[in-house]
Amino acid sequence: MKKALIIGVSGQDGAYLAKLLLEKGYEVHGTSRDAELSSFSRLKHLGIFSRVGRHSMSPTDFRSVMQTILEIEPNEIYNLAGQTSVGLSFAQPVDTTESISTGTLNILEVIRFHKLPARYYNASSSECFGDTAYTAADELTPFQPRSPYAVAKASAFWFTSVYRKAYNLFAASGILFNHESPLRSPRFVTKKIINTACRIHAGEDVPLRLGDLSVRRDWGWAPEYVESMYRILQHDTPEDFVIATGKECSLLDFVEKTFSFLGLDYRDHVEFEKNFIRPYDIPFSLGRAEKAERILGWKAKTRIDDIIAAMIKWEMERLQDSSRGIENFNTM
Q1: What is the DSSP string of 237-288?
Q2: Which domain holds residue 253?
């Protein structure tokens, strides 16, 4: 039985990845900064809480990282931890950098220093590409980060690349474009839109406050994207892969589709909020995942309309359960 360690198992991707690996027969362990205080609500929602070994680990503390990895002795390590909000990274640049970049370096150093045979997956981000002048980005597109989050992710990517080449580690990065699901935190704009629209449909008088609606993003389905993580570590050689749908959609289109699905006109409910404008944003983000399809056999299947419909269905069911006093998963 293979053993996997998911660093950051309590998040959206960590929970879906844990479920996938359990289905494939893995012994799965996961970390959060304080496993005793963390609710692991996403693991509970997926019905796998009791099947995942849970450990406290701080990625920025080298001793903590070393003790955890040496105790578990995993065959595969998936690093999904770190501060995940692009917007918040402008307010908390130091914490963002340390949690992503320093955390990655600590993991790689443990693998290198102890000569561990574990395969390592680094969660990189399309934010690293920055402005690509309205063209699709692939593995050869240069990085032009536009946020502290993107800078930290770019640093983690290059640490992974350097350790792979300098120390012959099986270390690879998945450069993932935006991917959504019902397990998204309300901090993310897609979940905020879905949640607010569903509340309005249910009769609440609440506005949806948003910033720049013209930005365009490549949105995929998170359960499919974690499959790419697994496939990257099963490949014969460690390589980096862009993971994307190859289709883009504006935030305005996302809002309009969501409200239309519920029989509402977004213009009656959306308000502009200048405080939501990022200091240095990306107007257009689109990925080209031809390498992943050619080498890994991975291709995105779920499109934006289906993603919105699935998230709305889940959110409406949650609101109905809540109104009846039934406890349901909540990402708040």
Answers
A1: S---EEE--S--EEHHHHHHHHHHHTT--GGGTEEE-GGGS-SS--SB--B-
A2: 185-217+247-284+303-323
